[in-house]
Design brief:
With 307 residues, the protein is an alpha/beta fold. It is built from 10 helices and 8 strands. It has 2 domains: 82 residues; 212 residues, Rossmann fold, CATH 3.40.50.1820.
Length: 307
Amino acid sequence: MTWTRRVISVLGIVVALWCIVTAWPMIVHGHPAYAVLLALTLIVAGVVLWRAWTPRPRWRGWRFVVAIVLAVLAVAWLALLLWLKPFAAQEPALAAMQSSSSVTVDETPTQIVMTPTEGTKATGVFFQPGAKVDARAYAAVLRPLAEAGYTVVIPKQPLGIGFLATGAFGSAQQSFPGVSEWVVGGHSLGGTVAAIDAEPHDADTVDPVVGLLLYGSYPATDMSSSLTGKVLSLFGTNDGLATPGDIEKSKANLPAGAVFTPIEGGVHSFFGDYGEQPGDGTPTITHDEARQLISGNSLEFLTGLGR
């Protein structure tokens, strides 16, 4: 077991360093949870490697069983770190993160806020990223909403998992006094989490949710009779992950007045700017064309709320 400990420890150091180097933009701009896990992995692996060169009693009996279990858990932990490695934002999303005369962009370790510099409306947009996707990846597609006067808030999810950010919307309701009502939305898993936020908050007397905006996504439960806000579901006809068939099935779980708008030839990764995603379909339009359609339909939805 001594050599097993040495090998797994070295592997842990290599994996953690590789993730840090290859995901450095997300280490700097993402939620700190992933960086903390990588740092802890480096520390623990370093300590175990050092101790593995110190003479120890032979691994026998129950100690051997415990050692095997710990080795398996360590390998599983490293596999999890690799799986959690996020999709980093690409252009034009990075350029859209810059403030201008019409939109101020503020970034903290836990969120991105796009604030119109003038003509700010009372409706805000709270948008949950897709699983393991850099929150900045949605800056370009959502910036036109901010330019039209809507405050846009994009949370940075711990470890890039939307279910770990279910309390973020409640915090946003209290943090933006200029916003009196909200449209919550999200991409992929983020849209599922947004639907979870929308259902209990659409009846709030203060800062209610008045709309749900889904990008290649659908709710996890039936809210066809409980959700009172307006719904827009945008989906790519060539999406290989949230397929058109999945979207069709989701209609039964959304209110009868929900609007479903296809992005012809679009794929799952076109709802943000983070590169290709494994398992996705093959697009038949350009990313720029899809982004323009997504932004345009989203803005039309907001305008149609009459606010």
